[in-house]
Amino acid sequence: AKNAGRNAVCFFDPEMQAVATANATLATDLRQAWRENQFLIDYQPQVGADGRMSGVEALLRWRHPHRDLVAPADFISTAEETSLIIPIGRWVLEQACAQLAEWARRPDRRHLSIAVNVSVRQFRHPDFVDEVMTAIADAGIAPHKLKLELTESLLAEGIEVTVAKMGSLKDMGVTLSLDDFGMGYSSLSYLKRLPLDQLKIDKAFVKDILTDANDAAIARTIIGLAQSLGLSVIAEGVETREQRDFLAQQGCLEYQGYLFCKPLPIEELEQFIDRQAG
Ligand code: C2E
Ligand code: CA
Ligand code: CA
Ligand code: CA
Fold first, then answer.
1. pLDDT at 272 over 80
2. Fewer CB within 10 Å, N- or C-terminus of the chain?
3. Pocket of ligand 1 from Cβ distances under 6 Å
4. What residues does the EAL domain cover (predicted)?
5. What is this structure's pTM?
């Protein structure tokens, strides 16, 4: 990338230039990371009201050779822009299905589900539904154990296309969860049309749920909405007992957050499951 500046568009704003250079470097690094298998998956437990694990969320990690772990927030958008999210996302999906297949053979683990984050770019790809079908078939797993976490931003594509695609996934038996609900611009009339199984309350609303009346009201509304639409509801970013208790009072009976467990590499997750059982 040393000589890239010579042929690049000329920026007059040095700050913009810096950002553009950083993005180009990140894109190059990401491509290399993908070639060299630098990606990992951590798994974070999701637990029910009885504290029992119901499943995990798969969270992508990038182990850069010369940096600390890079947070997904710092590379997902570049992965989207470069389309690298397509092969990376497929890999996460395949890993999750392989893990589910392994757990299906173990009586103490076969009840667990795995939630996989799906980016907009990935969802829009014409092969996405086929890829999900292939991943499930190749692993030989029960489709409902795979939970896809979708976001409201999918609706920007147009409601008809989104509903149709979600319908195909639903027909396959996959579980569908709406992630970061309340953060975007989805209208309630849209929500009614989406073939969902679950709403996920974003950690942004959970954080100050005990002190911010607006956040509490939003959480309550999401829970009520889920109940009236016949959907399950899970809260993420639950860090304290008080938050958990408040959510439980409002009728949210599934949780994810540091109170229970942080995202763990698979070996540590397996130990966590064993400790919970024993
Ligand atoms: P998300 O889907 O909303 O995931 C929840 C984030 O909250 C994760 O951040 C998780 O580590 C963090 N978290 C969990 N418990 C707590 C808690 O108690 N308190 C707080 N403050 N945070 C908690 P992470 O792992 O950095 O992931 C960030 C985002 O990156 C995810 O947000 C998701 O949008 C995206 N992402 C992660 N993995 C993938 C992937 O495989 N594919 C795609 N497309 N996106 C991914
Ligand atoms: Ca998620
Ligand atoms: Ca979230
Ligand atoms: Ca998020």
1. yes
2. C
3. 44, 59-60, 71-73, 76, 89, 92, 117, 119, 179-180, 203, 236-239, 257-258, 263
4. 23-277
5. 0.93
